Amino acid sequence: MKVLVSDEVQVDYGQIFVGSGGDAYDLHDAFAGQDGVGLCGGGTDGTLLLLTGLRIGGVGFTAELHDSRPALDETWEEIVEVPFRPVSEETRLRQWNGKNAWELGLEVRDYRVRYSATGMDAGRRKNVREDDEPQTDDRYLLQFWPAPSEPARLLKQTSGAAASWHDFATSPVG
Question: Over the stretch 8-22, which tens digit does the pLDDT of each residue have?
Fold first, then answer.
């Protein structure tokens, strides 16, 4: 396992991105074809839209690259999996405001992505975290491993914040 990112990542509008190629995305397109799997939108080629409970401020964030499917850690409150394929050799985790990015070093190939979260409702209640305030309870883990494409899956959901995004992904244009 290789840790790609272990940092506080600033979110705006409760969003973080993984992008390779262009910067274009659409909230509705991100969840297209995911049949009720929210939180991690992989419906746009080469892009992942990651949603958080906190709307504005810094959250704890880790990204990892594994050689094969990692063991499922049930201590996370929210867990989803989606397919992802970078469209260029440059794949970055990017803050919504574009002020910071982390190169992930992913090859152009098919990956499975597991996005796990905890404390989303606490983050949603906090809403905005100022730079001088302590980090909230919401934190996130993004795991990549080589795997053939398969449909998005909701593995675990406990929070109201996650439930609302899964509902959105059920009918993203409605």
Answer: 999 999 999 999 976
First to last CA, the chain: 40
**Whole-number Å distance between alpha carbons of 59 and 134:** 10
CATH architecture for segment(s) 2-170: Sandwich (2.60)
pTM of the model: 0.94
For residue 74 the two structure tokens come to 């049930």
Position 161, amino acid: A
Say if residues 30 and 49 touch (Cβ distance below 8 Å).
yes
Q: State phi, psi for 29 to the nearest 5 degrees.
A: -65, -30
Backbone CA torsion sign across 44, 42, 58, 89: negative
49-71: pLDDT as tens digits: 999 999 999 999 999 999 999 99
Paired tokens of 137: 């309870």
Q: Please state, in angstroms and rounded to a whole number, the distance separating the CA atoms of residues 81 and 152.
A: 5
